[in-house]
């Protein structure tokens, strides 16, 4: 979603359309600049194929359609200027549609034939095509990196190994609440019940059956089953592309590895941003610090690999420190 918006010059949080599997047919009354990211659902403009992960112009009267999935399950369609329909509701800071609750988006429901959306005005004369050069690859076999916890201590050591070494298949019972997996069951040390606590996107719950459930966008805010691990943020995009029958494998990583993966992801997105958001890690005498200006704003430092020696004075005391900038 964020990439789709950046490709057309929007802010990253502008509402977009999420298209599942076969997608809609959309007629444009006025010229527009759009981008399609995520799954390859075979997008076509007036019958001719167009590229994913690239912005392109649509003439007045143009028809955007989709031929069906090649890889992945969900695409994201952005419009330069954003969606401006007064009937599209922002709820709790989001334009997302929560269908089970019937709120958000357009009337809290999926779009249907005949719906109309107003989008921002576009000046095609100023249009410059943008392309995302490092898109993710989605396949039928997904490797998901996870952090153990918060309740991995409620499982046997063998179960941790089993989860890491086993292939699981996405069940046909999966939905936007949770991705249910079939495969080797995991063993709880005692009861499969815990006091209900908060859940995060990508949390892996294990009910009494022992079969993992990866909690997704429409999950409950709390859950009463032990949570053995959580999918790292950098791999969240893979979850929305899984289909029944796809294979999932887990790889346990450290917090440092998860943070590095997230930074790498944001660095790739920085190629589309006017102002980069990720700076290099700054270490002073081995300790990570934030470099800030006099107003307290973070200062990007991107001279990776540089080392500096500096003297820091505290009153009459002077201390020599080494400053290192690294990824």
Description:
The structure is a single chain. By secondary structure, the chain is mostly beta strands. The chain has 3 domains: 2-84 and 119-126, Jelly Rolls (Sandwich), CATH 2.60.120; 141-256, Cyclophilin (Beta Barrel), CATH 2.40.100.10; 279-326, no CATH class. The chain contains 4 helices and 23 strands. It has a 7-stranded mixed barrel with strand order 11-18-15-16-13-12-19. It has a 4-stranded antiparallel sheet with strand order 1-8-3-6. The radius of gyration is 23 Å and the shape is globular.
Mean pLDDT: 89
Any idea what the CATH architecture of the largest domain is? Beta Barrel
- State the share of residues found in helices, binned by percent: 10-25%
CATH homologous superfamily designation of the largest domain: Cyclophilin-like
Can you tell me the CATH topology of the largest domain? Cyclophilin
């Amino acid at each position: 979603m964020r990439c789709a918006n950046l490709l057309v010059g929007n802010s990253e949080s502008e509402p977009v359309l999420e298209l599942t599997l076969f997608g809609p047919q959309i007629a444009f009354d006025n010229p527009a600049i759009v981008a399609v990211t995520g799954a390859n659902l075979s997008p076509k403009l007036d019958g001719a194929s167009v590229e994913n992960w690239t912005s392109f112009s649509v003439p007045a009267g143009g028809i955007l359609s989709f031929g069906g999935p090649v890889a992945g399950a969900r695409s994201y369609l952005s419009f330069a200027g954003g969606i401006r329909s007064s009937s599209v509701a922002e709820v709790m800071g989001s334009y997302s549609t929560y269908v089970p609750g019937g709120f958000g988006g357009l009337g809290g429901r999926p779009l249907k034939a005949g719906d109309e959306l107003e989008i921002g005005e576009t000046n095609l004369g100023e249009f410059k095509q943008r392309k995302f050069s490092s898109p993710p690859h989605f396949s039928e076999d997904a490797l998901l990196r996870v952090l153990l916890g918060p309740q991995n201590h409620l499982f046997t050591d063998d179960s941790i190994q089993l989860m890491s070494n086993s292939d699981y298949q996405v069940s046909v019972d999966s939905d936007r609440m949770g991705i249910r997996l079939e495969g080797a069951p995991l063993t709880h040390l005692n009861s499969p019940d815990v006091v209900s606590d908060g859940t995060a996107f990508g949390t892996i719950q294990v009910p009494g059956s022992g079969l993992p459930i990866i909690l997704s966008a429409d999950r409950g805010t709390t859950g009463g089953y032990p949570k053995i691990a959580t999918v790292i943020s950098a791999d969240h995009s893979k979850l929305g592309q899984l289909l029944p029958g796809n294979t999932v494998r887990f790889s346990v990583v450290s917090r440092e590895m998860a943070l590095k993966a997230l930074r790498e992801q944001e660095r790739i997105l920085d190629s589309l941003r006017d102002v980069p958001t990720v700076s290099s890690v700054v270490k002073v005498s081995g300790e990570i610090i934030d470099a800030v200006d006099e107003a307290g704003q973070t200062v990007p430092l991107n001279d990776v690999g540089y080392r500096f020696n500096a003297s820091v004075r505290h009153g009459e005391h002077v201390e020599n420190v080494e400053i290192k900038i690294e990824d």
